[in-house]
């Protein structure tokens, strides 16, 4: 199952502990050094979709400053999806590095040649 970068980051944000929506946004922001900033509409649509897919599940609700916060947790299927995507990305990086190394070797100056 290929997953988008945003989905991968949302799942990763939930990998170590349950979080509510705003905490997921904050965690993704920190994980990406601000490169990815999830908007509320995007996040809550994604959370609903991930629940429907069985990758995350509601954990519990808390009232904080008069606001209800729903916490979500990663499921075993969600953890499997993170692992699979991590392997896929690692393979892609390895292949890209191999090609770059071939390019560098091909373009390296050769001793004894006049150029």
Automatic annotation (TrEMBL):
Superkingdom of origin organism? Bacteria
Which residue windows are coiled coil? none
What Gene3D superfamilies does the entry give?
Winged helix-like DNA-binding domain superfamily/Winged helix DNA-binding domain (1.10.10.10)
- Transcription regulator PadR N-terminal domain residues are 10-83
- Transmembrane intervals: none
Tell me which Pfam families the record gives. PadR
For this protein, the record's InterPro entries field holds:
Metal_resp_DNA-bind_regulator, Tscrpt_reg_PadR_N, WH-like_DNA-bd_sf, WH_DNA-bd_sf
In Swiss-Prot or TrEMBL terms, this protein is called: PadR family transcriptional regulator
Phylogenetic placement of the source organism = Bacteria, Bacillati, Actinomycetota, Actinomycetes, Micromonosporales
